């Protein structure tokens, strides 16, 4: 399994990534997108999270009970191969799916942006 | 089939004492490294002798996560047992938790990739293998230099640097000078001979395998005819063969007289580029209008009004938190003084009690907290919005922009922020905030320069002449009841000729949307502004009530005594 495939498995089927204004929806598109990205090294300098108010459901499916959702916010520095380093901001909405045996958290939405995106 | 275009295969033995440079230094796009630029090559695999940069070979790095647990010999034997081709691991080593080694052959790398998950350790846990293209592992320069010099001398004599000449590998490999050299690949080798490392005469394989093409790969041909070569023998079908060729020769534009689709070229590791960065993502024009209107209203109150006025914008059970960045290498107190006190950056803040305290919950707590943050002026024209989620019941979007501090010792300092709002739609096309996360940082110089270039339409007090005592009181009352700071009410009253009713009507018509935050999810009806102004008997005119009582109880008795 490649690294990008492993990353894609963290996302819900209908998840969306907005990467510096580029919208990527669905697992196939996500897999392609991550495959296309150069290798990177991240350094996280900030992390915060909040529970999303209970009645909000992200991508609620009929069959599942209400999902717990968490907002995760992070920022720091990233260096992609062949590019200068950038400060970035990223936020995730994580959605929990519980079965009888365990709970799985997956990314429902991912929003990433360089702080200096306009001059990139 | 003739083998006119390929030579003998090679066997590689581990190099002694190699040293490694960081991967970055090999990247093709990085101009500062000098000798990395690719050059156009004539078709048919021909090359221009001494201009060849022998840096883009088919080296692959094989990584075994958590490989540090395993003995080298045991691991390699295990992998070989499942691998359909023999492989020669170069420079096996452990790096952090991983085991790593290199192979110099794309087909070997392919086969090794397939082994991932098919092998298990003694605890029956499956072992993964990750494969990625790698720049040439860098070996001792001394050895390389001498070899390089020698070869250059030789090749000049041998005329291998004649351009436009189709490369005949057969010729090359039968050259005794080339064959006898242990040539190490490295980024500084500047001639075509660098294509062929360690060619030993005794290694004349019967199968004309893909391994031979590895040598040509460094030449970066743009056109090839593979169908006349015996390459096909190693692969079951033509399409696999073609894919392998394309993988090995990323710059190939034509193969067997057919154009290579750009999508195939594009996907290869060597050419990975970052996607172009774009601006705001709104999803639709309707959502754009909704969000922009919301932001205008929100920041109008946040910057110019009493922030208590934001109570109507939040859900009862809303959450808010604030962070400033923390760089563990530079943990000096931040210049973002007022914000750092409330920062809930969990990279820095480990105290679980504080973590709970700094997550503001309920709109009352949130608005009280916002009210003590420094006064600001946001540049709405700088806002970039990413609309992350939209469902019937929820909008999640992030806003990036800049603001200025407008009072205190840090006046005029420009800060950059990212704010994430999660909101539910409320009536009258407004939004009810359930989650709000703000992160603040110092703005970079380029950002600071561009900020606030659009003049902010706030009237200045200098445009209004001095006013009487009575007018002052009117301004004060208007300010208290509308929640707006003194400059605006003054201007508004002045423009309406100090007609209080008229002024309030003007204000209402201009800012009616502001007062129609009416979140149905949590609270009772909110009064629109005009009701607030014309009904003194409400919480906003507590002051008036006290004054009235004072007059009745204190002042009147004094008069009655006269």
UniProtKB/TrEMBL annotation, chain A:
Q: Where in the cell is it found?
A: Cytoplasm; Nucleus
Provide an example Pfam family for this protein. NTF2
Q: Does the keyword Transport apply?
A: yes
Q: Which UniProt keywords apply?
A: Cytoplasm, Nucleus, Protein transport, Transport
Q: What is its main location?
A: cytoplasm
The keyword Nucleus belongs to this UniProt entry's keyword annotation: yes
| Gene Ontology BP, a term | nucleocytoplasmic transport
Name all NTF2 domain ranges.
1-114
Function of the molecule: Has a role in nuclear-cytoplasmic transport of proteins and mRNAs.
From the Swiss-Prot or TrEMBL record, give the protein name. Nuclear transport factor 2
Q: Lineage of the source organism?
A: Eukaryota, Metazoa, Chordata, Craniata, Vertebrata
Which gene is the coding source of this polypeptide chain? NXT2
UniProtKB/TrEMBL annotation, chain B:
Q: Tell me where it mainly resides.
A: cytoplasm
Q: Name one Pfam family in it.
A: Tap-RNA_bind
Q: What processes in GO biological process is this protein linked to?
A: poly(A)+ mRNA export from nucleus
Q: Which InterPro entries match?
A: LRR_dom_sf, NTF2-like_dom_sf, NTF2_dom, Nuclear_transport_factor_2_euk, Nucleotide-bd_a/b_plait_sf, NXF1/2/3/5-like_LRR, NXF_fam, RBD_domain_sf
Q: Where in the cell is it found?
A: Cytoplasm; Nucleus, Nucleoplasm
Which UniProt keywords are present, listed alphabetically?
Answer: Cytoplasm, Leucine-rich repeat, mRNA transport, Nucleus, Repeat, Transport
GO cellular component terms attached to this protein's record: cytoplasm; nucleoplasm
Q: Which segments constitute the NTF2 domain?
A: 290-440
Q: What GO molecular-function term can you cite, just one?
A: RNA binding
Q: Where is this region: Disordered?
A: 1-53
| CDD domains per UniProt | UBA_TAP-C
The TAP-C domain extends over 469-532
Q: Locations of Basic and acidic residues compositional bias?
A: 21-43
Signal peptide extent = none
Q: Which domain of life is it from?
A: Eukaryota
Q: Which family does it belong to?
A: Belongs to the NXF family.
Q: What is this protein called?
A: Nuclear RNA export factor 3-like
Please state the gene responsible for encoding this protein. Answer: LOC101343412
């Amino acid at each position: 399994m490649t690294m990008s495939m492993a990353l894609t498995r963290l996302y819900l089927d209908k998840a969306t990534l907005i990467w510096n204004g580029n919208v990527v929806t669905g697992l196939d598109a996500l897999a392609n997108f991550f495959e296309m990205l150069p290798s990177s090294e991240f350094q996280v300098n900030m992390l915060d999270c909040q529970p999303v108010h209970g009645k909000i459901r992200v991508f609620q499916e009929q069959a599942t009970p209400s999902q717990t959702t968490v907002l995760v916010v992070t920022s720091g520095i990233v260096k992609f191969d062949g590019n200068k380093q950038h400060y970035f901001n990223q936020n995730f909405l994580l959605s929990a799916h519980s079965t009888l045996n365990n709970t799985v958290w997956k990314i429902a939405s991912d929003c990433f942006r360089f702080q200096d995106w306009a001059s990139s | 089939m003739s083998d006119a275009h390929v030579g003998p295969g090679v066997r590689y033995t581990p190099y002694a004492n190699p040293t490694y440079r960081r991967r970055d230094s090999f990247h093709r796009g990085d101009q500062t490294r000098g000798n990395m630029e690719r050059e156009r090559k004539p078709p048919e695999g021909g090359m221009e002798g001494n201009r060849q940069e022998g840096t883009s070979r088919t080296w692959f790095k094989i990584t075994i996560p958590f490989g540090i647990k395993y003995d080298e010999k045991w691991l390699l034997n295990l992998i070989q047992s499942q691998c359909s081709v023999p492989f020669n691991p170069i420079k096996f080593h452990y790096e952090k938790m991983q085991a790593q080694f290199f192979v110099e052959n794309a087909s070997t790398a392919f086969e090794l990739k397939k082994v991932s998950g098919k092998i298990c350790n003694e605890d029956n846990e499956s072992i993964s293998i990750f494969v990625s293209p790698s720049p040439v592992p860098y070996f001792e320069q001394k050895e390389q230099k001498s070899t390089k010099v020698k070869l250059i001398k030789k090749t000049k004599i041998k005329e291998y640097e004649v351009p436009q000449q189709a490369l005949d590998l057969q010729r090359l490999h039968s050259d005794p000078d080339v064959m006898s050299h242990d040539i190490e690949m490295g980024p500084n080798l500047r001639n075509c001979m660098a294509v062929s490392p360690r060619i030993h005469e005794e290694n004349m394989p019967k199968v004309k395998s893909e391994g031979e093409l590895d040598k040509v790969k460094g030449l970066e041909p743009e056109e090839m005819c593979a169908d006349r070569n015996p390459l096909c023998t190693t692969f079951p079908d033509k399409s696999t063969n073609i894919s392998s060729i394309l993988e090995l020769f990323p710059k190939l534009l034509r193969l067997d007289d057919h154009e290579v689709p750009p999508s195939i070229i594009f996907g290869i590791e060597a050419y990975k580029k970052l996607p172009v960065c774009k601006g705001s993502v709104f999803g639709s024009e309707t959502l754009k209008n909704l969000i922009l209107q919301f932001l205008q209203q929100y920041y109008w109150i946040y910057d110019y009004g009493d922030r208590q006025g934001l109570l109507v914008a939040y859900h009862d059970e809303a959450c808010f938190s604030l962070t400033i960045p923390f760089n563990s290498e530079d943990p000096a107190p931040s210049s973002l003084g007022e914000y750092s006190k409330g920062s809930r950056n969990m990279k820095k803040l480990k105290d679980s009690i504080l973590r709970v305290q700094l997550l503001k919950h309920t709109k009352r707590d949130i608005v009280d907290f916002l009210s003590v943050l420094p006064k600001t002026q946001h540049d709405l024209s700088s806002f970039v919005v990413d609309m992350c989620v939209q469902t019937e019941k929820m909008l999640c979007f992030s806003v990036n922009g800049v603001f200025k501090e407008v009072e205190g010792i840090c006046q005029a300092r420009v800060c950059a922020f990212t704010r994430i709002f999660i909101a539910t739609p409320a009536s009258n096309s407004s939004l009810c905030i359930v989650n709000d996360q703000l992160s603040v940082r110092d703005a970079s110089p380029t950002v600071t320069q561009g900020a606030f270039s659009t003049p902010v339409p706030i009237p200045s007090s200098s445009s209004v002449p001095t006013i009487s005592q009575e007018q002052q009181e009117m301004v004060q009352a208007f300010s208290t009841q509308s929640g707006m700071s003194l400059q605006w009410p003054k201007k508004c009253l002045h423009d309406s000729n100090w007609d209080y009713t008229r002024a309030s009507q003007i204000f209402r018509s201009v800012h009616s949307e502001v007062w129609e935050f009416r979140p149905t999810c949590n609270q009772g009806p909110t009064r629109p502004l005009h009701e607030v102004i014309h009904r003194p008997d409400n919480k906003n005119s507590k002051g008036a009530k006290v004054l009235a009582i004072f007059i009745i109880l204190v002042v009147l008795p004094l008069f009655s005594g006269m």
